[in-house]
Design a protein that fits this description.
With about 575 residues, the protein is an alpha/beta fold. It contains 24 helices and 15 strands.
Length: about 575
């Protein structure tokens, strides 16, 4: 019997942290659009001062203006009409809280309400600032996850929880020949002891020791470091909570939902794309032949929703199995509804091409469902896999799903993205750009430094000196413009160095478990919540990303048009094989 995701979420309540962020808005959009039968969606929020509106927004104002008033939801509002849209909005409720505080900053009344009503939890909230002070990053990315897990343990009707992490918790496992499985790897240190060590430091000690600790344990920044510790501690303290971990790679703009090019926050990759497009940056430290493991935000959200649903169904099956066993009925072995044998381990291929370490070809040849293991138990190969695999039903390990594209044969490289962007920008200049795009990719750091100082920093210094002269050469207005230019130049250089580790290295992240989430789903669920790296045209996607930044970040597109998203390779094959 095929499964409908909508049925799993019907009359259920969802609690989301980080719902005001980029991924959070798209998640909320997909729930309201494609799973409208949910009872309620609680968003953990704080009041905040709006730079755009230049005033402080309380909880309800922020929900209405920054979240539900976002352009992200405009297609849905137009589709269903104003009356139905208002009805859907009534399902979304803000709850005062903060993951950096004990009890997630919730009042006793709200804690009891969530404990009574919550069926699903998605923990998205995090600081993605690569240079965040270590103790602050630890409080949010590591302890924040533990606080949400503690809340989950009080939820009497909890059916599934997703903790969103990052593929780069395994930053140290680099290279195209090293396949990063969907599992936990040892850190080489005790995560709890590390937390205590950092929390015992005063701010001055943290500043000094951060670089020492990152270098000692081979992490590029505090974000990946604290996220890796967070995963380990959640695994250690999860107990019976039905939790799974979703690890995205580099999250980019949407490819299809809510519409192509949606983006309202800049990651390091998006920031570089912006400064390159505006002619602020003319050189980047980057190896054009290395993999750019970018994944559209809507694909990440699809994996989150399917992981929630499959976890719910998995535990439901386990309960039925346990009840049948207790009553003495003869039952068949429990099958993992996600279809994958190993929630914490994925077979390692000799190289990325020999099975794509997660492509559908690799999945079919290297993985088997538990159902097939019971059916062909005499096969030595399958028996070995069954013995070596660790499942949540056996050992309580969290299932890990990697939302990535690097293990696919259809993957982007920095060079491919550069070519696409150059074609899109050729002969045109953005109205707010300093010049037309003219980019050099180099792996030579001394060469980069010379170009930066001669072509960017020194011209800025010269302009700054000129505008400080008496009128008509200088003026306060010109001075302000040049200072703005200086901030942009310095920020662009900072982005280059922050992102350096990801443009001069590459990783292969297997996504076998993520691919197998489609197993057992009905046609509607498979198509609506699709995750298929072969459906992405990277040439078009890069240009869609640039247009999305122009429209939604800068607020001006000039002469640039939205590229038409062509049929994917998967769609072409489906059409060719159908009547």
């Amino acid at each position: 019997m095929s499964l409908d995701i909508r049925a799993g979420f019907s009359n259920r309540t969802v609690f989301i942290t980080g719902g005001t962020g980029f991924v959070g808005k798209v998640l909320l959009y997909r729930i309201l659009k494609d799973i409208p039968d949910v009872t309620c969606i609680y968003l953990l929020m704080r009041g905040k001062r709006s730079r755009r509106l230049k005033k402080y927004l309380n909880l309800q104002e922020r929900l209405e203006l920054e979240v539900l008033g976002s352009p992200c939801f405009e297609p849905l509002r137009q589709q269903v009409g104003d009356a139905k849209w208002r009805e859907l909005c009534q399902k979304v409720k803000a709850v005062q809280g903060d993951i950096t505080l004990d009890h997630v900053g919730l009042s006793a009344k709200d804690r009891e309400m969530l404990a009574k009503e919550t069926n699903f939890i998605v923990h998205l909230a995090a600081t993605v600032n690569f240079s965040e002070r270590l103790d602050l990053a630890l409080n949010m990315n590591t302890l924040g996850g533990l606080r949400v897990l503690a809340l989950a343990k009080t939820c009497r009707h909890l059916e599934a929880m997703v903790h969103v992490s990052t593929c780069y918790v395994n930053y140290r496992r680099k290279g195209r020949q090293v396949v990063n499985e969907e599992r936990l790897y040892p850190l080489g240190f005790d995560p709890e002891e590390m937390c205590k060590r950092v929390l015992a430091m005063n701010p001055n000690e943290v500043e000094v020791q951060s670089a020492v600790l990152l270098k000692e344990h081979s992490f590029p920044n505090t974000y990946t470091f604290t996220k890796s510790i967070g995963e380990q501690l959640i695994y250690k303290h999860k107990e019976s909570v039905p939790i799974v971990v979703v690890r995205p790679s580099i999250v980019g703009c949407s490819y299809r939902d809510p519409f192509p090019g949606w983006v309202d926050a800049l990651t390091a990759a998006g920031g570089l794309l912006l400064t390159i497009s505006l002619g602020v940056v003319h050189e980047v430290l980057c190896d054009k032949d290395l993999i750019a493991d970018v994944i559209p935000v809507d694909y990440v959200v699809n994996i989150i929703l399917k992981a929630l649903f499959k976890t719910q169904q998995h535990y439901k099956t386990r309960r039925l199995h346990a009840a049948s066993k207790k009553s003495g009925d003869v039952v068949t072995p429990v099958q993992r509804v996600s279809g994958a044998v190993c929630g914490s381990a994925t077979p390692v291929f000799a190289d990325a091409k020999a099975g794509a370490a997660g492509s559908k070809v690799g999945t079919d040849s290297a993985m088997a469902t538990e159902a097939s293991i019971f059916a062909v138990g005499k096969s030595p190969e399958v028996d070995d896999l069954a013995r070596s695999a660790t499942t949540e039903a056996d050992q309580g390990l969290p299932f890990i799903y990697q939302a990535a594209t690097s293990a696919s044969e259809n993957r982007a490289t920095w060079g491919r993205m550069h070519t696409s962007l150059a074609d899109y920008m050729r002969g045109k200049r953005h109205p707010k750009g300093l010049s037309q795009m003219d980019l050099t990719l180099t792996t030579n750091q001394p060469y980069y430094r010379v170009r930066y100082y001669l072509l960017r920093y020194m011209p800025y210094v010269a302009l700054l000196s000129m505008v400080k002269l008496p009128p008509p050469i200088g003026s306060p207005q010109k001075l302000e413009l040049v200072k703005k230019l200086g901030r942009a130049v310095r920020r662009a250089d900072l982005l280059t160095w922050e992102f350096l580790d990801f443009t001069l290295n590459e990783w292969i992240y297997a996504f076998v478990n993520a691919s197998l989430l489609d197993d057992g789903l009905d046609e509607y669920s498979r198509k609506t919540f699709r995750f298929d790296p072969y459906s992405i045209n990277w040439y078009t996607y890069t240009q869609v990303y640039a247009y999305g930044i122009f429209k939604h970040i800068i607020g001006e597109t000039g002469d640039f048009k939205m590229p038409k998203v062509p049929l994917s390779a998967t769609e072409v094959l489906e059409r060719a094989s159908s009547l």
